[in-house]
Amino acid sequence: MKLTVIIPVYNEASTFRTLLERVLAVPIDKEVLVVDDASDEETVQQLKAAIASTAEGQVQLFTHPHNQGKGAGIRTALRHATGDVVIIQDADLEYFPEDYARLLETYRRHGARAVYGVRDLSDRSFLMRFGNNFLTWLTNLLFGANLHDMETCYKMIDRDLMQSLNLQSHRFEIEAEMSAKLLRRGVKIYEAPIGYQPRAEDEGKKLSPLDGLPALATLLKYRLNLPEETEIEKIEQALLGTGALGVILLAFLLKRAAQDR
């Protein structure tokens, strides 16, 4: 079974070389597709140097002329994927490529089409942990799922299935779009524990609590079966303008309070 590892990169000069070395060291048949999302010059030089030191054809590099976001990077690489299974790998060092084997074992054992890596979020800030738990709860509520970490980067998905999802997202809401479309199709998502070492914003973390609203809007877009061309910004405006966001948050808080009794 061949694995396609997709690595979207934006300004990760300090981590990319180490990350790539760890990915290549994993003893699994794989191809590595790197997408540079218009990074700064230092990162570009690191990318070129790191890839030049690998065997020919071992790593493919694609570039965006201007910054488009993580989702756009995934979509670019996905067009070139040839493996049996695809996994997304952030270019920082928060996730552990050594966990590929555990995810693949779960994938094979269950005859799965999708496996999510579940993180221990106890070391994350309160706001980021709250946002992750809220979006996972909402995903389960809207789609009848039982996920524990919808926002995880480590989504291992059958390549044909993933290419058929017709992904549209440009930024971090790609995680919500993938999950919503899998669940709407009735795909059972299996889970396996993974390692996780969160970094702070001053260490280069790009995801922020503000990215929660586009993810929420994306979940609603696909739950309501709105046309693909529906702009999530309009859904965000509707949520804020009608007070619906507050109602959803209140429902989540009440549920958590009931669980804590």
What tags apply to this protein structure?
alpha/beta, Spore Coat Polysaccharide Biosynthesis Protein SpsA, Chain A, seven-stranded mixed beta sheet, 7 strands
What does this structure look like?
The chain has a seven-stranded mixed sheet with strand order 3-2-1-4-6-5-7, sandwiched between helices. Strand 1 (3-9), helix 1 and strand 2 form a beta-alpha-beta unit. It is globular, with a radius of gyration of 18 Å. With 261 residues, it is of the alpha/beta class. It is 44% helix and 14% strand. The chain has helices at 16-25, 41-52, 70-78, 100-110, 126-143, 159-163, 174-184, 212-223, 232-242, 244-260, and strands spanning 3-9, 30-36, 59-63, 85-88, 114-118, 155-158, 190-193. It has a single domain, classed as Spore Coat Polysaccharide Biosynthesis Protein SpsA, Chain A (Alpha-Beta Complex), CATH 3.90.550.10. Helix 8 packs across helix 9.
Q: How would the blueprint of this fold be written?
A:
Blueprint: E1 3-9, H1 16-25, E2 30-36, H2 41-52, E3 59-63, H3 70-78, E4 85-88, H4 100-110, E5 114-118, H5 126-143, E6 155-158, H6 159-163, H7 174-184, E7 190-193, H8 212-223, H9 232-242, H10 244-260
Parallel strand pairs: 1-2, 1-4, 2-3, 5-7
Antiparallel strand pairs: 4-6, 5-6
Helix pairs in contact: 1-2, 5-8, 7-8, 8-9
Let me know the average pLDDT.
91
CATH topology: Spore Coat Polysaccharide Biosynthesis Protein SpsA, Chain A
Number of strands: 7
Number of domains: 1
Low-confidence stretches: none
CATH superfamily: Spore Coat Polysaccharide Biosynthesis Protein SpsA, Chain A
CATH architecture tag: Alpha-Beta Complex
What does the main sheet amount to? 7 strands, mixed
CATH class: Alpha Beta
Please provide the ordered H/E string of secondary-structure elements.
Answer: EHEHEHEHEHEHHEHHH
- The helix content is 40-55%
